[in-house]
Specification:
- The protein is an alpha/beta fold.
- It has 2 domains: about 180 residues, 3-Layer(aba) Sandwich (Peroxisomal Thiolase, Chain A, domain 1), CATH 3.40.47; about 160 residues, Thiolase/Chalcone synthase (Peroxisomal Thiolase, Chain A, domain 1, 3-Layer(aba) Sandwich).
- The protein is built from 11 helices and 13 strands.
- Strands 1-7-6-4-5 form a 5-stranded mixed beta sheet, sandwiched between helices.
- Strand 12 and strand 13 form a beta hairpin.
- It is globular, with a radius of gyration of 19 Å.
- It binds acetyl coenzyme *A.
- Acetyl coenzyme *A (ACO) binds next to helix 2, helix 6, helix 8, helix 9 and strand 12.
Length: about 325
Amino acid sequence: MYQTKIAGLGSYVPENVVTNDDLSKIMDTNDAWIQERTGIKERRHIKKGDGNSTAVMGVKAAKIALERAKISKDDIDLIVFATLSPDYYFPGCGVQVQEMLDIHTCPALDVRNQCSGFIYALSVADQYIKTGMYTNILVIGSENHSGGLDFTDRGRSVSVIFGDGAGAAVLTRSNHIGQGILSTHLHSEGKHAKELSLEGPSTMHWVPEIIAENPQGDNIPYYPYMNGQYVFKHAIQRFSEVIMEGLAQNGMEVKDIDMLIPHQANLRISQFIQQKLKLKDDQVYNNIQKYGNTTAASIPIALTEAWEEGKIKDGDTIVLAAFGSGFTWGSAIIEW
Ligand code: ACO
């Protein structure tokens, strides 16, 4: 049995900054409402023509992570790509990244677990390394939300929350027991699937039919639906549970956490978890204020920034936790 170590981290966000005031010019919203409800001040959006896409941003983050890991792209044994906003319906972004990085015939797979996508991807990669099947794995979380949101008054409660960006981690095999990814914990509960979902275009909602049935453009199911308060209620319960589950499995307590990096869903959700678990300010990392909610990309972007800012040191206990559409949720306990 081997251990999995995070050898390198990288992130990328588009240059185009969209402030709350910018959004208030195109829909009926305002800075005060957005900040009070979500903590978000601004987010990044891909600009048409800037060359970015979900896969392209993933590649940009991956190149930084590979360089920092000092691992050649030719030594990558597997690519795991987490996204809910892939460039194509099929194939997945994993194979696009493989092509863009010019890596030959290594397996590439996509994980479809929304805001929990990066934790699920990390867990998948961790199992392959721990069993000895692979040595180096590239894990990416990337999202292009701005390409699929409703920026009219109708979509305002959802579209103000999400932003674009990517983060990546290079995982490698280590022989140091007790260091690296100690454990991952995954859950899902499909009965809540509709509460945070995007129905079409899909095999259930075929675009020509949708257009024929909705000539006025009402009730179109190809914008995301979110039952905000329902999501909030479940998120704060599941986040706390899965963090405590991870700590308990490793014989740890809340005081042992050096840094909690929660999925950046909403600053109010992070603050609620912090209060519930009685964590101090310097034990929790948040950057949703700058980037909004980037779903599968939010944890690797935050982890990369925390590391770049020197907030993660060797020997620290890092806890990653996420909750999202599905509902799905999960955590990872890492000894840095
Ligand atoms: N700007 C201004 N007003 C708005 C906006 C907006 N962008 N959006 C909605 N409103 C209005 C509504 O129309 C409503 O007006 P009314 O009272 O006149 O009818 C009022 O604000 C309150 O609307 P609610 O939807 O009840 O707002 P709520 O207080 O629930 O806040 C929010 C919405 C922020 C989504 C909240 O429910 C929440 O924090 N939910 C958690 C879900 C979440 O954070 N999801 C993140 C993605 S999922 C994930 O990552 C896990």
